[in-house]
Amino acid sequence: MIVQSKSFFVSSEEKIYPAGEGISRRLVAYDENIMMVECSFEKGAIGALHTHPHVQTSYIASGKFEVQVENEKKILSKGDGFYVAPDVSHGCLCIEKGAIVDVFNPARRDFL
Amino acid sequence: MIVQSKSFFVSSEEKIYPAGEGISRRLVAYDENIMMVECSFEKGAIGALHTHPHVQTSYIASGKFEVQVENEKKILSKGDGFYVAPDVSHGCLCIEKGAIVDVFNPARRDFL
Questions:
Q1: From CA A30, how far away is CA B59, in angstroms rounded?
Q2: High-pLDDT (> 90) share of chain A, %
Q3: One-character DSSP codes across B43-90
Q4: Which of A18, B19, B36, B78 supports an S-S bond with B23, CB 3.0-4.6 Å?
Q5: Cα dist. A103→A28, A47, B21, B49, B65 in Å?
Protein backbone atom coordinates (compact mmCIF):
# COMPACT_ATOMS: atom_id res chain seq x y z
CA MET A 1 0.00 0.00 0.00
CA ILE A 2 1.42 3.36 -1.06
CA VAL A 3 0.62 6.12 1.39
CA GLN A 4 -1.16 9.02 -0.26
CA SER A 5 1.14 12.02 -0.52
CA LYS A 6 0.74 15.29 1.36
CA SER A 7 -1.05 18.25 -0.23
CA PHE A 8 1.80 20.71 -0.89
CA PHE A 9 5.29 20.22 -2.32
CA VAL A 10 7.83 23.02 -2.02
CA SER A 11 10.78 22.07 -4.20
CA SER A 12 13.44 23.44 -1.86
CA GLU A 13 12.16 21.17 0.93
CA GLU A 14 12.03 17.91 -1.05
CA LYS A 15 14.67 15.21 -1.22
CA ILE A 16 16.60 14.85 -4.50
CA TYR A 17 17.47 11.32 -5.61
CA PRO A 18 20.25 10.44 -8.05
CA ALA A 19 18.86 8.75 -11.17
CA GLY A 20 21.84 8.05 -13.42
CA GLU A 21 24.72 10.18 -14.68
CA GLY A 22 23.65 13.83 -14.89
CA ILE A 23 20.07 13.00 -13.88
CA SER A 24 18.23 13.56 -10.60
CA ARG A 25 14.67 12.90 -9.50
CA ARG A 26 12.27 14.56 -7.09
CA LEU A 27 8.84 13.18 -6.18
CA VAL A 28 6.06 15.76 -6.42
CA ALA A 29 2.68 14.17 -5.64
CA TYR A 30 1.31 10.65 -5.72
CA ASP A 31 -1.03 7.95 -4.57
CA GLU A 32 -1.67 4.35 -5.69
CA ASN A 33 -2.89 5.34 -9.13
CA ILE A 34 -0.81 8.34 -10.14
CA MET A 35 2.72 9.59 -9.48
CA MET A 36 4.25 12.91 -10.54
CA VAL A 37 8.05 13.07 -10.68
CA GLU A 38 10.36 15.95 -11.70
CA CYS A 39 13.48 14.69 -13.50
CA SER A 40 16.37 17.15 -13.92
CA PHE A 41 18.97 16.60 -16.64
CA GLU A 42 22.40 18.08 -17.22
CA LYS A 43 23.29 18.84 -20.84
CA GLY A 44 24.32 15.61 -22.56
CA ALA A 45 22.65 13.32 -20.01
CA ILE A 46 20.95 10.31 -21.53
CA GLY A 47 17.75 8.69 -20.36
CA ALA A 48 18.46 5.30 -21.94
CA LEU A 49 15.71 3.55 -23.89
CA HIS A 50 13.57 1.51 -21.49
CA THR A 51 10.06 0.18 -20.99
CA HIS A 52 7.68 -0.19 -18.04
CA PRO A 53 4.08 -1.34 -17.70
CA HIS A 54 2.99 2.11 -16.45
CA VAL A 55 1.43 4.68 -18.77
CA GLN A 56 3.57 7.84 -18.81
CA THR A 57 2.65 11.43 -19.66
CA SER A 58 5.50 13.93 -19.69
CA TYR A 59 5.86 17.73 -19.82
CA ILE A 60 9.05 19.61 -20.67
CA ALA A 61 9.36 22.13 -17.83
CA SER A 62 12.63 23.63 -19.09
CA GLY A 63 15.53 22.91 -21.43
CA LYS A 64 15.57 21.04 -24.72
CA PHE A 65 15.47 17.28 -25.33
CA GLU A 66 15.58 14.78 -28.17
CA VAL A 67 12.83 12.40 -27.10
CA GLN A 68 12.35 8.94 -28.62
CA VAL A 69 9.05 7.04 -28.33
CA GLU A 70 9.06 3.65 -30.05
CA ASN A 71 10.80 4.35 -33.38
CA GLU A 72 10.08 8.08 -33.62
CA LYS A 73 12.32 10.93 -32.42
CA LYS A 74 11.34 14.57 -31.85
CA ILE A 75 13.06 17.67 -30.45
CA LEU A 76 10.94 19.00 -27.57
CA SER A 77 11.30 22.24 -25.58
CA LYS A 78 9.58 23.98 -22.65
CA GLY A 79 5.81 23.54 -22.84
CA ASP A 80 5.94 20.50 -25.13
CA GLY A 81 5.10 16.97 -23.98
CA PHE A 82 4.83 13.31 -24.85
CA TYR A 83 2.78 10.18 -24.16
CA VAL A 84 4.07 6.64 -23.62
CA ALA A 85 1.68 3.68 -23.65
CA PRO A 86 2.41 0.66 -21.43
CA ASP A 87 5.52 -1.32 -22.41
CA VAL A 88 6.44 1.07 -25.22
CA SER A 89 10.16 1.82 -25.50
CA HIS A 90 11.19 5.44 -24.81
CA GLY A 91 14.20 7.52 -23.85
CA CYS A 92 15.78 10.96 -24.24
CA LEU A 93 18.97 12.92 -24.78
CA CYS A 94 19.28 16.27 -23.03
CA ILE A 95 20.35 18.94 -25.56
CA GLU A 96 20.00 21.90 -23.17
CA LYS A 97 19.96 21.48 -19.37
CA GLY A 98 16.42 21.26 -18.04
CA ALA A 99 13.66 19.27 -16.39
CA ILE A 100 10.91 16.90 -17.49
CA VAL A 101 7.80 16.27 -15.38
CA ASP A 102 6.89 12.59 -15.74
CA VAL A 103 3.51 11.38 -14.50
CA PHE A 104 2.82 7.65 -14.24
CA ASN A 105 -0.33 5.56 -13.96
CA PRO A 106 -0.28 3.55 -11.75
CA ALA A 107 2.39 4.83 -9.33
CA ARG A 108 6.02 3.73 -9.76
CA ARG A 109 6.48 1.71 -6.57
CA ASP A 110 10.17 1.39 -7.47
CA PHE A 111 10.54 5.16 -6.94
CA LEU A 112 9.42 5.01 -3.30
CA MET B 1 -14.18 5.54 -25.07
CA ILE B 2 -11.42 8.12 -25.04
CA VAL B 3 -8.97 7.70 -27.90
CA GLN B 4 -5.40 7.37 -26.70
CA SER B 5 -3.44 10.51 -27.48
CA LYS B 6 -0.59 10.75 -29.99
CA SER B 7 3.03 10.43 -28.85
CA PHE B 8 4.35 13.99 -29.25
CA PHE B 9 2.86 17.37 -28.33
CA VAL B 10 4.49 20.54 -29.65
CA SER B 11 2.91 23.45 -27.81
CA SER B 12 2.83 25.79 -30.81
CA GLU B 13 0.76 23.25 -32.76
CA GLU B 14 -1.86 22.54 -30.10
CA LYS B 15 -5.29 24.13 -29.73
CA ILE B 16 -5.78 26.54 -26.82
CA TYR B 17 -9.17 26.46 -25.07
CA PRO B 18 -10.59 29.31 -22.97
CA ALA B 19 -11.14 28.19 -19.38
CA GLY B 20 -12.48 31.23 -17.54
CA GLU B 21 -11.39 34.86 -17.26
CA GLY B 22 -7.62 35.09 -17.73
CA ILE B 23 -7.25 31.31 -17.94
CA SER B 24 -6.59 29.04 -20.94
CA ARG B 25 -6.08 25.31 -21.26
CA ARG B 26 -4.07 23.06 -23.57
CA LEU B 27 -4.26 19.26 -23.59
CA VAL B 28 -0.84 17.59 -23.50
CA ALA B 29 -1.20 13.80 -23.32
CA TYR B 30 -3.94 11.44 -22.23
CA ASP B 31 -5.75 8.14 -22.33
CA GLU B 32 -8.64 6.66 -20.33
CA ASN B 33 -6.74 6.65 -17.06
CA ILE B 34 -4.59 9.75 -17.11
CA MET B 35 -4.81 13.24 -18.60
CA MET B 36 -2.15 15.97 -18.60
CA VAL B 37 -3.36 19.54 -19.11
CA GLU B 38 -1.38 22.82 -19.17
CA CYS B 39 -3.37 25.69 -17.64
CA SER B 40 -2.09 29.22 -18.26
CA PHE B 41 -3.10 32.07 -15.94
CA GLU B 42 -2.88 35.84 -16.27
CA LYS B 43 -1.92 37.72 -13.11
CA GLY B 44 -4.99 38.03 -10.88
CA ALA B 45 -6.90 35.18 -12.54
CA ILE B 46 -8.81 33.00 -10.12
CA GLY B 47 -9.33 29.25 -10.37
CA ALA B 48 -12.46 29.19 -8.19
CA LEU B 49 -12.76 26.56 -5.47
CA HIS B 50 -14.25 23.39 -6.95
CA THR B 51 -14.28 19.62 -6.57
CA HIS B 52 -14.22 16.63 -8.93
CA PRO B 53 -14.05 12.88 -8.42
CA HIS B 54 -10.68 12.69 -10.23
CA VAL B 55 -7.39 12.62 -8.35
CA GLN B 56 -5.25 15.61 -9.38
CA THR B 57 -1.48 16.12 -9.24
CA SER B 58 -0.21 19.55 -10.23
CA TYR B 59 3.17 21.12 -11.04
CA ILE B 60 3.88 24.85 -11.16
CA ALA B 61 5.64 25.28 -14.52
CA SER B 62 6.04 29.06 -14.18
CA GLY B 63 4.71 32.03 -12.23
CA LYS B 64 3.49 32.22 -8.64
CA PHE B 65 0.17 31.06 -7.20
CA GLU B 66 -1.71 31.03 -3.92
CA VAL B 67 -3.08 27.47 -3.95
CA GLN B 68 -5.83 26.28 -1.63
CA VAL B 69 -6.44 22.57 -0.94
CA GLU B 70 -9.28 21.90 1.48
CA ASN B 71 -8.73 24.48 4.25
CA GLU B 72 -5.01 25.07 3.75
CA LYS B 73 -3.39 27.76 1.58
CA LYS B 74 0.20 27.91 0.35
CA ILE B 75 2.21 30.15 -1.97
CA LEU B 76 3.74 27.97 -4.70
CA SER B 77 6.28 28.88 -7.41
CA LYS B 78 8.04 27.19 -10.36
CA GLY B 79 9.02 23.63 -9.45
CA ASP B 80 6.54 23.28 -6.57
CA GLY B 81 3.42 21.12 -6.74
CA PHE B 82 0.29 19.92 -5.04
CA TYR B 83 -1.95 16.87 -4.65
CA VAL B 84 -5.76 16.79 -4.58
CA ALA B 85 -7.60 13.64 -3.48
CA PRO B 86 -11.01 12.84 -5.04
CA ASP B 87 -13.79 15.27 -4.12
CA VAL B 88 -11.48 17.54 -2.13
CA SER B 89 -12.10 21.27 -2.63
CA HIS B 90 -9.26 23.22 -4.29
CA GLY B 91 -8.56 26.44 -6.17
CA CYS B 92 -5.91 29.08 -6.84
CA LEU B 93 -5.18 32.76 -7.28
CA CYS B 94 -2.49 33.72 -9.78
CA ILE B 95 -0.03 36.14 -8.14
CA GLU B 96 2.45 36.21 -11.04
CA LYS B 97 1.48 35.17 -14.59
CA GLY B 98 2.34 31.54 -15.23
CA ALA B 99 1.23 28.00 -15.92
CA ILE B 100 0.22 24.95 -13.90
CA VAL B 101 0.42 21.42 -15.29
CA ASP B 102 -2.57 19.47 -13.95
CA VAL B 103 -2.66 15.70 -14.32
CA PHE B 104 -5.88 13.81 -13.61
CA ASN B 105 -6.70 10.17 -12.90
CA PRO B 106 -8.92 9.07 -14.53
CA ALA B 107 -9.09 11.38 -17.58
CA ARG B 108 -11.34 14.47 -17.50
CA ARG B 109 -13.86 13.51 -20.17
CA ASP B 110 -15.35 16.99 -19.83
CA PHE B 111 -12.11 18.44 -21.27
CA LEU B 112 -12.44 16.52 -24.56
A1: 12
A2: 92
A3: TT-EEEEE--SSEEEEEEEEEEEEEEETTEEEEEETT-EEEE-TT--E
A4: B19
A5: 10, 16, 28, 24, 21
Per-residue pLDDT tens over the stretch A37-90: 999 999 999 999 999 999 999 999 999 999 999 999 999 999 999 999 999 999
Instruction: Mark B18-32 as b/e (b = at least 16 C-beta within 10 Å).
Output: ebeebbbbbbbbbbe
Cis? peptide before B86, omega within 30° of 0: no
Question: In angstroms, how far is CA B96 from the centroid of its own chain?
Answer: 16
In sequence order, what are the residues at sequence separation of 6 or more whose Cβ sits closer than 8 angstroms to the Cβ of residue B7? A69, A70, A72, A74, A82, A83, A84
Match domain A25-104 to its CATH number in 3.30.479.10, 2.60.120.10, 3.40.190.120, 2.60.40.10: 2.60.120.10
| Interface contacts A/B by beta carbons within 8 Å | 135
User: Which chain A residue has its CA at the smallest distance from B62's CA?
Assistant: A61
Residues of B in contact with A28 (CB under 8 A): 57, 59, 81
